[in-house]
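Reminder to self: tokens first, then the designed residues, so the page reads top to bottom the way the pipeline ran.
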């Protein structure tokens, strides 16, 4: 009997066993249909039916059935030793999991479900995987982990959910478990280690920027792109090349002041998070942010010792790194006695607003983290809260506003940036079709999962191009790079600016020829 079982397991471990995108094996679909079960992998056309209670119960029941088989079979999908799903350190909360009633409202908003129609690559499917992981019904196998790796963490499901499920806390807890307990391949570990050895460290990024500048100015970058060499590179390296930010000497030399006084009557004392990638490759956004805040009556402080906020680490499951970065940032800004802490990168702001939860078990920082997070504002949120005092000069431009996921979904900041742009005389703000669907950037997602990220980037960029807008407003550096690189691949040029850059142009009266707005950053 043992020989027969071994033979069966070997067959199930064959390369054709799992579906290409990490979904359930094809024979499970057939088995479910033969047994008269409701398929858990119903496509987007079945969303309406899934919202009914009876359909949800049927889906839940068949998930249990298939997941038990998944637990049995997928542990043999590779030759690595499987691990039990979760340990006792902050597993995904059963109480938060139980908030999900499997209604299905999240399905049409989830980027991976939109792409593939796979139940286990939807928020409610992943929540069910968390549940059976807590119950010890599955091991942390390749197939199990793959469904979580494919999640962008865009939090569109939070906006869509009528039950208030806190998916952000659930996915972050799950990813922390994965990074502690799952044995990634050597190449995967090395690639991720390289990213985290660079991105949270502005000094290292500056050193990297110099050879990038030479590479771009020499014409080598365009040559490599034109000759099709990228197609011969591993997808992750090709994605790194495609998303390379433009580097200029002016940008590398730019330094923002440690202190900027308010113009006119002081209305608030504001600290600015200058970021990591933002500080090095998008320094013009920080400069514009300081000018606009000062024009609106804010004293602005840039603590020179500030470091990374920990957002990338938190979203990737590196819990201890994220906690360490959070503690250091809290210490730094506590010394400035501020009314607000302004952030101009959506991913950073969403993480900083959750420091209280991140450090909830830290007796020295739990209360300090809550007080810190209460003062954090996205810069567009803060400007809208204060109200305008600086006069706006006309800018005749058609602008498409792109909702960065961690601003719109994670922070709920939607109307504020739109109101700021609409306050500029001459600006025509146009909506983007499917505006709530992620562009595919999602922190490091477009580097570690280049194929779905590319599909989402193309989907988003084609929708933007359909608006006929001259400018795209985006409040996140990752989104900016994703949209620009995808447009270039499609043979188009899109000018992507932060909303605060456009507001800065209006306040300063910067104009160009013809269109009425300068398309060159100041």
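Designed residues (522 positions):
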């Amino acid at each position: 009997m043992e020989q027969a079982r071994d033979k069966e397991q070997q067959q199930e471990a064959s390369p054709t066993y799992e579906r290409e995108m990490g979904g359930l094996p094809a024979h499970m679909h057939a088995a479910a249909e033969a047994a008269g079960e409701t398929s858990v992998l119903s496509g987007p056309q079945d969303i309406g039916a899934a919202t009914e209670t009876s359909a949800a119960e049927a889906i839940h029941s068949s998930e249990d059935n298939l997941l038990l088989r998944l637990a049995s079979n997928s542990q043999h999908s590779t030759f690595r030793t499987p691990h039990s799903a979760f340990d006792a350190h902050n597993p995904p909360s059963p109480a938060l999991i139980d908030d999900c009633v499997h209604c299905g409202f999240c399905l049409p908003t989830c980027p991976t479900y939109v792409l593939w129609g796979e139940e286990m690559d939807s928020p409610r499917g992943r929540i069910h995987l968390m549940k059976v992981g807590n119950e010890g019904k599955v091991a942390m196998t390749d197939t199990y982990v793959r469904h979580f790796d494919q999640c962008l963490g865009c939090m569109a499901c939070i906006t869509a959910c009528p039950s208030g499920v806190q998916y952000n806390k659930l996915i972050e807890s799950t990813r922390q478990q994965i990074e502690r307990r799952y044995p990634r391949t050597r190449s995967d570990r090395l690639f991720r280690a390289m990213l985290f050895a660079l991105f949270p460290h502005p000094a290292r990024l500056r050193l990297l920027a110099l050879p990038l500048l030479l590479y771009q100015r020499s014409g080598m970058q365009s040559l490599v792109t034109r000759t099709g060499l990228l197609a011969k590179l591993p997808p992750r390296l090709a994605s790194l090349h495609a998303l390379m930010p433009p580097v200029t000497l002016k940008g590398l030399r730019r330094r923002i002041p440690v202190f900027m006084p308010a113009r006119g009557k002081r209305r608030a004392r504001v600290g600015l998070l200058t970021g990591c990638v933002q500080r090095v490759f998008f320094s013009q956004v920080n400069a514009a942010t300081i000018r606009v805040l000062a024009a609106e009556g804010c004293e602005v402080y840039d603590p020179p010792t500030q470091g990374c906020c920990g957002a990338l680490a938190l979203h990737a499951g590196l819990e201890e790194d994220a906690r360490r970065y959070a503690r250091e940032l809290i210490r730094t800004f506590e010394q400035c006695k501020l009314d607000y802490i302004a952030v101009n990168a959506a991913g950073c702001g969403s993480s900083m607003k959750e420091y209280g939860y991140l450090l909830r078990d830290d007796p020295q920082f739990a209360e300090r983290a809550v007080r810190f997070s209460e003062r954090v504002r996205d810069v567009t949120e803060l400007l809208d809260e204060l109200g305008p005092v600086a006069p706006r000069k006309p800018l005749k431009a058609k602008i498409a506003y792109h909702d960065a996921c961690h601003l719109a979904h994670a922070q709920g900041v939607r109307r504020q940036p739109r109101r700021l742009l609409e306050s500029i005389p001459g600006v025509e703000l146009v909506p983007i079709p499917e505006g709530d669907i992620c562009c595919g950037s999602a922190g490091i997602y477009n580097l570690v999962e280049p194929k779905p990220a590319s599909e989402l980037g193309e989907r988003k960029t084609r929708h933007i191009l359909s608006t006929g807008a001259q400018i795209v407003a985006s409040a996140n550096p990752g989104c900016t790079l994703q949209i620009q690189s995808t447009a270039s691949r499609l043979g188009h040029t899109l000018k992507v600016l932060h909303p605060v850059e456009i507001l800065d142009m209006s306040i300063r009266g910067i104009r160009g020829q013809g269109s009425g707005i300068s398309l060159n950053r100041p």
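The chain has 29 helices and nine strands.
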